[in-house]
Amino acid sequence: MNGKTTLDAALLMDAIGYADGGYIQELVNELGKKRGGAHVRRIRMLSTLLAAVLIMAALTATAFAAARYFGIFDFLSGRRALPGGARELIETDITPAVQADEGFPLECEAKEALADGRSLRVVAELRAREAGKYLLVPQDAAVEDSAESAGLAGNGSIADYARDNGLEILWAGAAVGNGDELGMEAQSVECRRVSDGAIDLLISGVSDEGAESFEVKLVCTAYRAGDSVAARTELSFTLENRAGAGETRYLPAGGGAIPGTKAVLAEVTVTQTDVDTYVDYRCESGYTDAREAGDAGLCFRICDPANAEEGFRSGTGSTPDENGGMLCGYVYAKTELGSGFTVEAYNCWTKEVYCRIELNAEA
User: Fold this and answer.
1) CA contacts within 13 A on the Cβ side of 319
2) What's the pLDDT at 50?
3) pLDDT in tens, 235-251
4) Quick check: helix, strand or coil at residue 28?
5) Strand runs (DSSP E) across the chain, as ranges?
6) Who contacts 36 (Cβ-Cβ below 8 Å, separation ≥6)?
């Protein structure tokens, strides 16, 4: 290293593309306060550069928004981050990526997708066909919600923002329409704002069983205030499992009886993929009354290694299986559990801890 840095404009825009303008301005102001020695000229140059970036960003906002989007790694950061190797598994050439229904008020495109045989993640971009007409908001938003909660500027409500900017509110959303067929009991949807007329959605779901591919039917919907039925369109595509996977069976040491319940932990199956760790508990159940079983609220969490729960992504409480037993499934950021780990069985309603159980990998 010679101590010199070559600054490329495209790389700069890529680095600060989603930085808030107010944050950059605060940085410029803070740099302007610094004085003294050889740093003065450098600080002034950086302040000038950042100010130029603000102007450039304002002049090219429309073109930049059209070229960039929020990807899977933008949505999942910090403790929720995927392992770096997962980048190579993300599909960006999804066919057909754009719907053919021109009567739908939005252009819908599948930007990215990631499947590892158990989980499915899709980034869909919804963009108003008529620029400057609509304010897109996620379907769980209410007009009285604050503008800030929807990623908008101003101290008023979403309705205030739409009125002040001459926009009509359009509720937009997307989900995997055939989730049940794919074994997904639930889905989650997260939203990031690209512009007033465009949003990116991350749709995530976990399948009960592994699959080599997912035949996805992505349903996009939109409705205005007063609409009795939401308009909808569908994108269909196939996602192949591109992640390697390994499975380990763990058995409880000294029996898996869970005091305070009528359940016995029989086995735990851990599936490791290149993306996530899936921990599935199978219990034998002595419950004959579904309400009593529900009141027991049987759930599990990993207590050793202690940091495993920091990577918790999602999970389901105990559900009956076809053999009269109970199943619980949890998803973690990729976590190595080795030859054994310890779990805590507890009541998800009362938070009462039933017991701790040591698990050892089957020889």
Assistant:
1) 11
2) 46
3) 999 999 989 889 999 99
4) helix
5) 106-115, 119-128, 134-138, 168-176, 184-195, 198-207, 213-224, 231-240, 245-252, 263-273, 276-285, 298-304, 312-320, 326-333, 340-347, 353-361
6) none
Query: What pairing do the DSSP bridges indicate for beta strands 263-273 and 213-224?
Result: unpaired
pLDDT above 70 coverage of the chain, percent: 80
Residue 91 DSSP SS3: strand
Greatest extent of the chain over all pairs of C-alpha atoms, in Å: 79
Q: Which amino acid is at 69?
A: Y
Tokens of residue 301, six digits: 């969490």
Query: Residue 362 is encoded by which pair of tokens?
Result: 């089957």
Rounded Cα distance between 268 and 271, Å, is: 10
Q: Are 257 and 281 in contact (CB under 8 A)?
A: no
List the one residue out of 19, 11, 119, 123 whose CA is nearest residue 70.
Answer: 123
Instruction: Report d(CA 343, CA 250) in Å as an integer.
Output: 12
SS3 call for 312: strand
Query: What are the DSSP calls for 278-299, one per residue?
Result: EEEEEEEE----HHHHHHHTEE
The kind and range of the H/E element at 153 are none
> How far is 9 from 139, CA to CA, in rounded Å?
37
pTM score, two decimals? Answer: 0.78
Question: CA-to-CA distance for 231 and 179, rounded, in angstroms?
Answer: 20
- Reduced to 3 states (helix: H, G, I; strand: E, B; else coil), residue 77 is coil
Which tokens hold the place of 102? Answer: 């021109």
CB 110 within 8 A of CB 202: no
pLDDT tens figures, 61-116: 444 445 589 999 999 988 889 999 999 999 999 987 666 677 899 999 999 999 99
CB neighbour burial string for 331-350, b if at least 16 within 10 angstroms, e if fewer: bbbbbebeeebebbbbbbee
